[in-house]
Amino acid sequence: MGVLDGKVVIVTGGGNGIGRECALLAGREGASVLVNDLGGGLKGEDAGSSGPAEDVAKLIRDAGGKAISNSDSVSEYDAVAAMCEQAKKAFGGLHAIINPAGILRDGMFHKMDPADWKAVIDVHLHGAFNVTRASIEHFREQQSGSYVLFTSTSGLIGNIGQANYAAAKLGVMGLSRIVAMEGLQKNVRSNIIAPFAWTRMIASIPVKDEASAARVERMKNGMRADQVAQLAVALCADGAKDTTGQIFAVRGNEVFLFNQPRPVRAMARLEGWTPESLIEQALPAMKASYTDVGASASVFPYDPV
């Protein structure tokens, strides 16, 4: 018996990294799995291949599970709608979608090509919209469904050189929140995970010095994709039915629950504010409560457990 017995799950980006581990674990936990992967390069610039998705689906089948493959792009709505229909036709239903599919096109914002901005937004943010919109009516009708979408500390906290990725991943947070709010009465859940894991996306980040090299080596050993998959699969299970609208991170054997934006300081002035009074009074008074502009590593400066 597994926590996903009788469930049908779509896993995007399932040919490599976190998606691969999510698909394999979902299969071991009893789910029938549609493994989706474009089979393209890290930047999403090539035509892709059906091989990676089918390789993972075959591993699930060889282990006694049920799996099929799909190599369409999550950035295309009609393709995602067809993917959902494929899962329902093959397995008789659809109960959860895990969506870690992604690409990277890093670069300093003042040098960023508009095409690189659009490509990342299309896969990450539009991709998250596509998988939720294409399935949300089905989930609402059956009054059951779970989305596990993927955000990043690049969006929640920030990282230099990733404006496109950060904007998309913070957008995923807003999307998930509304899907969770609107789905509450229909038992449709949505949660997001910010993963720390050694994947080809992380491997693409340049190593500039010995300290960075040492940190990368620790990441390889201490932050694995299979550790992220444990939470992703758990959030699809009926046992997590009371968990929705939340932001998690997985870092090695650590699981974090993030807070969400709420006011931290307020000031009022009976006669109203002017630019001068804001500069002289409000901003200095609020300064102690500002959030610094440190990157993700400044929030997680220690080795994973």
From TrEMBL:
Molecular functions (GO terms): oxidoreductase activity
A Pfam family reported for this protein in Swiss-Prot or TrEMBL: adh_short
Family: Belongs to the short-chain dehydrogenases/reductases (SDR) family.
Domain Ketoreductase intervals: 7-201
Annotated SUPFAM superfamilies: NAD(P)-binding Rossmann-fold domains
Gene3D superfamilies reported for this sequence: NAD(P)-binding Rossmann-like Domain (3.40.50.720)
Organism: Terricaulis silvestris
Enzyme class: oxidoreductase
Keywords: Oxidoreductase
EC number, UniProt record: 1.1.1.-
Protein name in the entry: Short-chain type dehydrogenase/reductase
